[in-house]
C-alpha cells in the first residue's frame, strides 16, 4: 500500500480504507490518472466519528485556552505560506484551475485561519446579562458544539475546507471532514499541516470517499453534533433530511444563480464600458464558471445590450484555454467528463429554446474536459439555462428597460447567494442593492469577499452563514449561567 493511497486519517494515524478500496484521481486537463486515494466507506466513517467523539469528550482540545487555539491557527497559516507553491500547484491540477488561481486560494485559506485566530482572541469572556439585582450574576457564554461533520465541494476544495475547519477549531470542536471524491488532494495536504502544527490526535479526522456513502453516514450519525455542507441543492436537501432524525445543527451552502445587473450609465465613458465588460467576463468565466457565486446571468439595460454583448462576445472568444500551469492560460478545463457533458446539454437546450449563440458553444480540439467560454444572447426566464445552475463557462444575457424591471429580473430566482449592480448613480446603487434578495451584493464590482464578512444566501442557496462572527457562531452553543449570590428560601410552598 503506497502512501498516496493512505488518505484516511483517523485518531492521528494515516491508513487505507477498511475495505482496501481505492479511487483514481483524474487530471481534467488531459483525462489521465495522476493520483490514487483510499475509497472510504461506512466503517471508516464510524471509526473517524468515534475518534472525534473521544477527542471531544475526553481530550484536551475543547478545554484548551483561546490563546492556545489561536496560536495553532496562526502556525497553520505560516505553514500554508511556506507550502504556497506546492499546494497551489496541487489545487490547480486537481480542480483544473489556473496556477495563479491555485496560489490565490492558498492565500485566502491562510487569511481565513488568521482571521478566526484574531476573532477568538479579541472576544470577551461572555456577555453579562443585567438581572436587575446585585444579588445575581448572569452571563451568557459560548461553548463548542462538539463533533462536526464537514462536507466540502469539488470546485474550491481547499478554500471551502478552511471556511469550516478554521472556525470549528477556533471554537474548540473536533471534526471529521469529507472532501469531494473528485478533488480530495489539497484537503489531505491541509490535514497534514494541522498535524505538523501540533493539533492533538483525534481532533482532525478525514475520510476520502463518495458522498453517497461517507457523506450520508456523517449526516445521519448519532454522534455527530453538527453537519456543515457545501455543494448542490439536491445533495444538500438529502443531508438536511438525514440530519433531522438526530436533530443536529445543520449549515448548508447550496450555490446560486447570480445576477449581474448593468445599467447604461455605468458605461457612459470608455473607461466605464471597458470596466463593466471586463468584470462581466470575470464574473462568468473565472475557474470556467465553476463558482457558486458566478455571475452567470448578465442583465443589461436594453439600450446598451447590442454594444455590450458584441464586445463581451469578442473578448470571450479570445480567452486562452489551457492546463493551469501553461504559460498564458487564462481558463482551465471543467473538473470532469460529467460536468463537461452537463454543460453541453445546457447549451444545446438553450439554443433549442431560442437563445442566440454569440461566442463559444463547443469543445476545442484535443484532450481534457475543456469547453469554450460561451455567451448566449436573447435569453429569458423561461429557459432552463437561466433558471438552473450550470456550473460551467456559460453566460446568459437578459435585458431590462426600467430599474423596477431590473430588480424583478434579478430576484426572479429560487436561489439568493450573490448579485451585483453596475451604475454611476449612487442613489440607484443603494436602492437596488437594498432590494436584491441575495446574501452578498456587490456595487460596481464582482467576486471579492472578506473573511470578516458573512457569506451565505437566501432561499435555496442555503441556511446559515460562513465567515465573519456568524461563521464562528455556527460552531458554538450558547449557554446561560445564572448565579444567585445570596440564596434564600423561596417559600413558594407552605411546607
Automatic annotation (TrEMBL):
Residue ranges constituting the Aldehyde dehydrogenase domain according to the UniProt record: 14-481
PROSITE patterns for the chain: ALDEHYDE_DEHYDR_CYS, ALDEHYDE_DEHYDR_GLU
InterPro entries: Ald_DH/histidinol_DH, Ald_DH_C, Ald_DH_CS_CYS, Ald_DH_CS_GLU, Ald_DH_N, Aldehyde_DH_dom
Name of this protein: Aldehyde dehydrogenase family protein
Active site feature: 253
Regions crossing the membrane: none
Origin: domain of life: Bacteria
Keywords: NAD, Oxidoreductase
Family, similarity comment: Belongs to the aldehyde dehydrogenase family.
A Pfam match: Aldedh
Pathways per UniProt: Amine and polyamine biosynthesis; betaine biosynthesis via choline pathway; betaine from betaine aldehyde: step 1/1
Annotated signal peptide: none
Amino acid at each position: 500500500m503506497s502512501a498516496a493511497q493512505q488518505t484516511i486519517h483517523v485518531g492521528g494515524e494515516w491508513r487505507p480504507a477498511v475495505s482496501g478500496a481505492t479511487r483514481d484521481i483524474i487530471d481534467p486537463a488531459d483525462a489521465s490518472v495522476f493520483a490514487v486515494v483510499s475509497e472510504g466507506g461506512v466503517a471508516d466513517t464510524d471509526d473517524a466519528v468515534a475518534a472525534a467523539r473521544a477527542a471531544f469528550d475526553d481530550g484536551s482540545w475543547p478545554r484548551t485556552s483561546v490563546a492556545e487555539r489561536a496560536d495553532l491557527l496562526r502556525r497553520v497559516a505560516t505553514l500554508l505560506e511556506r507550502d504556497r507553491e506546492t499546494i497551489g500547484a496541487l489545487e490547480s491540477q486537481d480542480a483544473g484551475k489556473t496556477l495563479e488561481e491555485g496560489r490565490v486560494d492558498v492565500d485566502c485559506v491562510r487569511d481565513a485561519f488568521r482571521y478566526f485566530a484574531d476573532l477568538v482572541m479579541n472576544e470577551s469572556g461572555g456577555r453579562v446579562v443585567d438581572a436587575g439585582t446585585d444579588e445575581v450574576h448572569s452571563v451568557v457564554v459560548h461553548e463548542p458544539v462538539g463533533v462536526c461533520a464537514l462536507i466540502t465541494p469539488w470546485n474550491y476544495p481547499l478554500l471551502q475546507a478552511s471556511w469550516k475547519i478554521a472556525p470549528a477549531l477556533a471554537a474548540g470542536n473536533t471534526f471529521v471532514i469529507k472532501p469531494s471524491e473528485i478533488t480530495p488532494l489539497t484537503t489531505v495536504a491541509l490535514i497534514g499541516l494541522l498535524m505538523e502544527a501540533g493539533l492533538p490526535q483525534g481532533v482532525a479526522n478525514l475520510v476520502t470517499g463518495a458522498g453517497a456513502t461517507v457523506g450520508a453516514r456523517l449526516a445521519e450519525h448519532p454522534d455527530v453534533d453538527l453537519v456543515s455542507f457545501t455543494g448542490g441543492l439536491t445533495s444538500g436537501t438529502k443531508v438536511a433530511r438525514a440530519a433531522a432524525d438526530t436533530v443536529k445543527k445543520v449549515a448548508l451552502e447550496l450555490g446560486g444563480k447570480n445576477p449581474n445587473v448593468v445599467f447604461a450609465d455605468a458605461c457612459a465613458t470608455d473607461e466605464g464600458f471597458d470596466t463593466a465588460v471586463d468584470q462581466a467576463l470575470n464574473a462568468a468565466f473565472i475557474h470556467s464558471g465553476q463558482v457558486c457565486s458566478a455571475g452567470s446571468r448578465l442583465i443589461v439595460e436594453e439600450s446598451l445590450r447590442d454594444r455590450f454583448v458584441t464586445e463581451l462576445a469578442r473578448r470571450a472568444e479570445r480567452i486562452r484555454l489551457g492546463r493551469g500551469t501553461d504559460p498564458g492560460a487564462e481558463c482551465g478545463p471543467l473538473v470532469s467528463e460529467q460536468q463537461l457533458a452537463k454543460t453541453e446539454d445546457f447549451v444545446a437546450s438553450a439554443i433549442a429554446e431560442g437563445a442566440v449563440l454569440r461566442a463559444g458553444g463547443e469543445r476545442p480540439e484535443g484532450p481534457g474536459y475543456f469547453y469554450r467560454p460561451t455567451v448566449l444572447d436573447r435569453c429569458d426566464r423561461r429557459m432552463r439555462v437561466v433558471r438552473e445552475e450550470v456550473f460551467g463557462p456559460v453566460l446568459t444575457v437578459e435585458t431590462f428597460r426600467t430599474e423596477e424591471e431590473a430588480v424583478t429580473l434579478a430576484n426572479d430566482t429560487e436561489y439568493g447567494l450573490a448579485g451585483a449592480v453596475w451604475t454611476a448613480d449612487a442613489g440607484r446603487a443603494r436602492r437596488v442593492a437594498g432590494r436584491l434578495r441575495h446574501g452578498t451584493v456587490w456595487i460596481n464590482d464582482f467576486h471579492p469577499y472578506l473573511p470578516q464578512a458573512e457569506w451565505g444566501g437566501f432561499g435555496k442557496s442555503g441556511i446559515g452563514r460562513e465567515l465573519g462572527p456568524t461563521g464562528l457562531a455556527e460552531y458554538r452553543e450558547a449557554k446561560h449561567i445564572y448565579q444567585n449570590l445570596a440564596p434564600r428560601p423561596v417559600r413558594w410552598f407552605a411546607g
